[in-house]
Amino acid sequence: GIILSYEVARQLGIRGIFAEKVEEGRRFGRGFRVIPGERTLVVDDVLTTGSSIRDVLDAVRAEGGEPIGVAVLVDRTAGRVDFGLPFFACVTLELPSYDPAECPLCAQQVTLTVT
Fold first, then answer.
1. What are 19-23's contacts with CB under 8 Å, separation 24+?
2. 48 in a domain, yes or no?
3. The domain spanning residue 57 has which CATH number?
4. pLDDT digits over 33-55, tens only?
5. Could you tell me which of 99, 86, 108, 98 has the C-alpha nearest to residue 41?
6. What pTM was estimated for this model as a whole?
7. Can you give the residue range of the structural domain that contains 25?
8. Quick check: is 66 in a domain?
9. Can you give the chain as a three-state secondary structure string?
C-alpha cells in the first residue's frame, strides 16, 4: 500500500509516510515520525483481515497521532471489519479468508495450481 498511500497524499497535497512491519506490529522508521496531535488517514491497498491496518493505527496512536479514517483500494471483507473510524473502500468484495486448519480445500487436500 506504500505507492497508493503516497499517491493519495500527493493528491491531497499533504505529506505521506509509511510504517514498516516489525515482530510486534508496525513502526515508523527511516526518519518518519507522526507529529503529536497530527490527524492521520491510514491508507492500504487490500483489506483482508484488518490486522495490518490495526497495527498501523496502534503505531499512529503510540506516537500521539489522531487517526481520522481508513481508506483502502479493495475491501475483501464486504464491510465486516470495523475500525471504529470512518472507512472508505473503492471496491468491496466478499472473498473469504481461511486459517489453514479451517480451509475446506486444505481439508480435502486439494492442490493449488497456478498457471
1. 19/55, 19/56, 19/59, 19/60, 21/52, 21/55
2. yes
3. 3.40.50.2020
4. 999 999 999 999 999 999 999 99
5. 86
6. 0.83
7. 2-107
8. yes
9. CHHHHHHHHHHHCCCCCCEEEECCEEEECCCCCCCCCCEEEEEEEEECCCHHHHHHHHHHHHCCCEEEEEEEEEECECCCCCCCCCEEEEEECECCCCCCCCCHHHHCCCCCCCC
